[in-house]
Amino acid sequence: MPNQKILYVTTEMYPYQEDTNMGSLVHKMALKMHSEGNDVRVFMPRFGQISERKFQLHEVIRLSGMNIIINDLDQPLIIKVASLPGERLQVYFIDNEEYFKRKQYYFDDEGNAFEDNNERAVFFARGVIETIKKLNWVPDVIHLNGWMSSLIPIYLKTYYKDDSYFKDTKIVLSVYNEDDIQLNQNTKEILEFDNISGLQSLDNPSFLNFVNDSMNYVDVIVKGNEFLEDKLEEAYGKADAEKSDYLNADSIAKVY
């Protein structure tokens, strides 16, 4: 299945995160599709634990400089890029001093969830969409991995619904057993600022509730784990999208 443009959006990828199911699977899928002659790109957050020196990240000036408005606040978007170590596969990192410089992923040193995890997710989702448009590169497939990426189909089908840029793009969502962390109650206000309402997750915002909502906005749902936790399994069963059980990297092409 060569000559497809495939975009992987993920919160985890080996070697930037080690020893995670999602990170390993995304790494293998991206390399497999790349080796078969597809135009593959990966987008992920530039979490503070990712060493710019070790992985040779550098800022892409022509893509940086946009501002993303989150709840009436301008946040500058910084785009960094690196080649996957030992491979000619580009990984783009969504960065922002306010949201991603900190060394922890989602919790502070006392174990409390960051108050702005919701803003970080919105910034990441919109940053990916705006950067792809600026690249003038239209993916045939967007494959989403991780709770932050689940906001992308929601935004594409609401906030960007009149934008024809992605009209022929198919969206695949892999669903993983992630921690279900509560989000700040101002999540509803933040999304309503972007004219997004009516989501079930807004009454009880959390990582997995957004994943559950996003299942209603994608073309195909794939199990990222062989067995999903009860809450995800129930939402997976109810979703109208085409579904697939767990697939390894060698088999994922059949979905595309």
From TrEMBL:
InterPro entries in the cross-refs: Starch_synth_cat_dom
Transferase recorded as keyword: yes
GO function terms (MF aspect): alpha-1,4-glucan glucosyltransferase (ADP-glucose donor) activity
Superkingdom of origin organism: Bacteria
EC numbers: 2.4.1.21
Gene3D superfamilies from the UniProt entry: Glycogen Phosphorylase B
Sequence ranges assigned to domain Starch synthase catalytic in this UniProt record: 5-221
A Pfam family matched in the record: Glyco_transf_5
Keyword tags: Glycosyltransferase, Transferase
Keyword Transferase in record: yes
Recorded catalytic activity of this chain's protein: [(1->4)-alpha-D-glucosyl](n) + ADP-alpha-D-glucose = [(1->4)-alpha-D-glucosyl](n+1) + ADP + H(+)
Name this protein carries in UniProt: starch synthase
Species of the source: Epilithonimonas mollis
